[in-house]
Amino acid sequence: MTEQQLMALLPFMVLAAASIVIILLIAFRQGHTVIQVTGFLLMCLVIFAMWYVRGVLPQTIAPLLIVDGFGALFTGLIVFCVLVVGLFSYIYFEEREENPREYYILIFLSTLGAAILTISRHFMSFFIGLELLSISLYALIAYLRTRNNAIEAGIKYLVLAALTSAFLLFGMALIYMETGSMDFAVIAQRLNAAGKSSALFLTGFGVMMVAVGFKLALVPFHLWAADVYQGAPSPVASFIATVSKVGVFAVFLRFCQELHLQNNSAVMMLISAVAILSMISGNILALRQQNLKRLLAYSSIAHFGYLLVAFLPGNNTGVEAAVFYLTAYAITILAAFGIIILLSPGEKDADSLSMYRGLFWDKPFMAIVLTVALLSLAGIPLTAGFIGKFYVLTAGVEQRAWLPVIVLVITSVIGLYYYLRIISTIFADSPVTIQKERSLNQFFYTASYAALVVLTLLLFGIGVMPAVIIQGIKQFLVIDR
Amino acid sequence: MILIWMIIILLAGGILCWLLSKSNSPAIKWIALLAVLIDLVLLLNIWLQHGQGLTANTGNWMIQYQSAWIPSFGISFHVAMDGLSLILVMLTFFLGTLAVLCSWKEIEKRAGFYYFNLLWTLAGITGVFVALDLFLFYFFWEVMLVPMYLLILIWGDKNRRYAAYKFFIFTQAGGLLMLISILALYFIHGAQSGTYTYDYLSLLGTRIDPSVAKWIMMGFMIAFVIKLPMVPFHNWLPDAHSEAPTAGSLILAGLLLKTGAYGIIRFVLPLFQQYAADIAWWAMLFGVIGVIYGAMMAFAQTDLKRLIAYTSVSHMGFVLTGIFAFREIAMQGVIMQIITHGISTGALFVLAGMIKERLHTRDISQMGGLWSYMPAMGGAAMLFTMASLGLPALGNFIAEFLILLGTFQANPTFTVLASTGLVFSALYSLRLMQKVFLGPPNAPHKVNDISGREFIILAALSISIVLLGLFPQAVLDVAGKVISNKLYVIR
Amino acid sequence: MPIQYYIAFAATLFCIGVVGVLTRRNAIIVFMCIELMLNAVNLLLVAFSKMHHAAALAGGGKNVTTGVEGQLFVFFIMVVAAAEVSVGLAIIVMMYRNVHSVDVNFLNRLKN
């Protein structure tokens, strides 16, 4: 391993060191505040390290990893999400019964897993990253261990994730048999040499899709999503919605790009079908939801259906669209969960829709943030979600994928209904039921507020001036091999 | 640049109103009024400067402003104003001023946020009328939606939630179809010319494969006829109009419906000339159905605002028929109709709002004999119902007459059918007057006649409708250059 | 032995595992079934590794390392499976403390 390769891995080593540092801090009996602040600074350090090593990219660390612009982009997004989630976690766990300190170890380990996914170019790193991500997530979901909901969500996630990992491995084994390699690039080579794709490869890919579909909560592997979102602590739910999905999507995208699966009509049929089903059922399931967290879970199913439409073309526009969409989606969902976290009283989460009646007249700021987030999810102009949806549609229309595009349009009109339902609840003319008196750490409360302001400004900023972000994404994607 | 300033003034005024909402001071109303008035003055200034020399330098465009926005997509911030835009923006600011004025007393609670939404809606509408970049157009098309939704949702009547949903979802469904069409057009043009752009002027010359063109055009058409509204898609309109607060109804009827007509004239006809001619017969048919259906439904209503809402359906049927007659004279009628309908129906909604403020009901059967209490309002109502039924010397008469004249050359049968719509309109107008203002007094208590503020609103509307009836040439001169453009007149 | 035997055997084990996960209600047995699936995959990987290695040798190479990654992968899977079990059992213990049962059918409270 050369010095440059080591340099390129610096951000990931810092990320790995972060959890060790937290363990040491706990060993020396430091308080929640110290850990929180250290964690925040470490994440900033990761971002700084990424900026610091930008010159040596791209680097291939054979055979497992490749640190290129693509990976850096997704890793940056992941670390950004973790920064925000970590900040919100303080307020949330400070008033819960559980000791919050080990939480940070798990969350950083999980982040490391997601980050490794973004730079993996080999089945082994794919698997290790995925398991690092999920094993920490099992514990995170069940973190509030005296609550039945959390345990239930944890077990559901545990069983299903382990089951789908086994499927993933089975698929990998089949592809390994066919091609004799686990390296994405070599697999692509062998497949090209063979000319047409064999049935064995397609079976293997299909079986792998089970695991990917599960992690991204795509239909028909979406059944866990609503339960886990509802049962998990809110910061963990926002983590699953952003970090875990970004990581898995990154590796899936890299795998398909590398193998040029977009030219494979059978695979594309499969993915379009999954996309269409996800868009339809996600939106329809969300229609009658009265629980905000469950609703966000269903809407995330639909959103990853939209994302797959951008994934279909497999050209640069598609990748850019996917990255942009994920960025916009992550910011939006963090803003929405931020509100849920800040409004949650100690004993349960503020996830019932009835708790939001008339929020606008009581807490206008929070109501505006939530409204903007919902409008962004619905894809209304002035918000980042609109540009994201526009980008996805552009990619779809360019590819003439008419059926998915039409389904996208129709289902997003259906989706509009439940977003509007929440908005009209927020603006409803009635007394507020959330009575929450804050006697908490004023500093972190203000910090969370500030984070929400930043997120909202980002939503508007990207919605009005997307050119900056688009340019940035393009520049990153050029750094390639 | 001045066009952008007009939009910015509205947006900034809205934000300022909102920021002041905590204090709930009367200054909020004045800020809102001032913002709209400044825009009105700016626009009058443009009219005086450019009004005469429309044919002058930059072709049809009096003012243009263009700057890059999202260069990687070929999206630019391109706004421009020609005669058509000028007239519609003028209507926007005129009705916008009145909307602020008629909310003066009606909106007491949460005034800051109310005026924020009002001004942002106006800003969105202004943007729609001046945008020359298809992406920008779509952007404004959607921007005007959210504040309007909130206006209905928060300050509307009893059934406001339902009405607000319906309004939003209908428009959004059409809008997304339009977005797909815009994207398809963008890629077809890009593949042909090598430059990918959303600029209207560049896209004008695109040659499209006929089989595809039909579908692309339908995407645009559906968005616009939902807004217009054309009959099978009119369902959202009566609910939204009747549930919205007075200013909301005024803006909906006076301006939002016009964005649909504007879209057809500005985009569908020039971009898809040949294919538009192909569907002309159907479009005229649906227009005529709208005329008759709207009038009949209006006759059957007992809710005052619903009744007026259905008259809009009827009047916009004329617009659709006129546009697709492809005659210059009919198009002149359409422009007139757009304006006079905005004023006369807007005025009727204002009157309905005033009556509701006094009687707390919209039910016609609970009214009657109001003339004896409020002769001044009765007089105004008489004027506008007469305008609505198309009495000569008032603006609507000119408009409908020109449309029918133009349509007759294109299709006599439809013209005859549409004319029966005029008979129905006489029926519902007279019924309206009789039930509300004439007959035995039925008011529960004595009500006051119009106040000074209301007098100003009604006077402004009355004067303009009479002036339009007497001097329609002023409007036709401004818009004339656009209309006589051969793009709109095919056969 | 032909490779098909290994595939058939591993596939059978895998299917038994899947059926077990889907039908059993005891969380610990469900977990064991997942382990069974992972081991089926391990078996497959070792078999394929050997197969590719043999093919490379037959192709004329001496001292080739082809196919070694299949066996390497097996070690990773074993390590990860151990980690998964440790966390998984901890959660199951927690469940037992809360509801005094490890029956997964008790877990149905998350709904509206």
UniProtKB/TrEMBL annotation, chain A:
Residue stretches making up the NADH:quinone oxidoreductase/Mrp antiporter transmembrane domain: 120-415
Subcellular localization, as worded in the UniProt entry: Cell membrane; Endomembrane system; Membrane
Keyword Transport: yes
Record's bilayer topology term: Multi-pass membrane protein
InterPro entries named among the record's database cross-references: NADH-Q_OxRdtase_suN/2 (IPR010096), ND/Mrp_TM (IPR001750)
Annotated keywords: Cell membrane, Membrane, NAD, Quinone, Translocase, Transmembrane, Transmembrane helix, Transport
Catalytic activity: a quinone + NADH + 5 H(+)(in) = a quinol + NAD(+) + 4 H(+)(out)
Free-text function comment from the UniProt entry: NDH-1 shuttles electrons from NADH, via FMN and iron-sulfur (Fe-S) centers, to quinones in the respiratory chain. The immediate electron acceptor for the enzyme in this species is believed to be a menaquinone. Couples the redox reaction to proton translocation (for every two electrons transferred, four hydrogen ions are translocated across the cytoplasmic membrane), and thus conserves the redox energy in a proton gradient.
HAMAP family: NDH1_NuoN_1
Family: Belongs to the complex I subunit 2 family.
The name this protein goes by in its record: NADH-quinone oxidoreductase subunit N
From TrEMBL, chain B:
Alphabetical UniProt keywords: Membrane, Oxidoreductase, Transmembrane, Transmembrane helix
Membrane-spanning parts: 6-21, 28-48, 68-101, 113-132, 138-155, 167-192, 212-230, 250-273, 279-300, 307-326, 338-355, 376-394, 414-434, 455-476
Cross-referenced PANTHER family: NADH-UBIQUINONE OXIDOREDUCTASE CHAIN 4
Residue ranges of domain NADH:quinone oxidoreductase/Mrp antiporter transmembrane in the record: 131-424
Short name of one Pfam family: Proton_antipo_M
Keyword Transmembrane included in the entry's annotation: yes
Family designation: Belongs to the complex I subunit 4 family.
Organism (species): Danxiaibacter flavus
EC number: 1.6.5.-
Molecular-function annotations in GO: oxidoreductase activity
Membrane-topology annotation of the record: Multi-pass membrane protein
Localization per Swiss-Prot or TrEMBL: Endomembrane system; Membrane
Name this protein carries in UniProt: NADH-quinone oxidoreductase subunit M
Automatic annotation (TrEMBL), chain C:
A GO MF label: NADH dehydrogenase (quinone) (non-electrogenic) activity
Lineage, broadest ranks: Bacteria, Pseudomonadati, Bacteroidota, Chitinophagia, Chitinophagales
Protein name, as recorded: NADH-quinone oxidoreductase subunit K
Coarse class of the protein's main subcellular location: membrane
Keywords of the record: Cell membrane, Membrane, NAD, Oxidoreductase, Quinone, Translocase, Transmembrane, Transmembrane helix, Transport
Subcellular location: Cell membrane; Membrane
Entry similarity comment: Belongs to the complex I subunit 4L family.
Entry keyword annotation includes Oxidoreductase: yes
Gene (name only): nuoK
Assembly notes: NDH-1 is composed of 14 different subunits. Subunits NuoA, H, J, K, L, M, N constitute the membrane sector of the complex.
Organism of this sequence: Danxiaibacter flavus
Top-level enzyme category: translocase
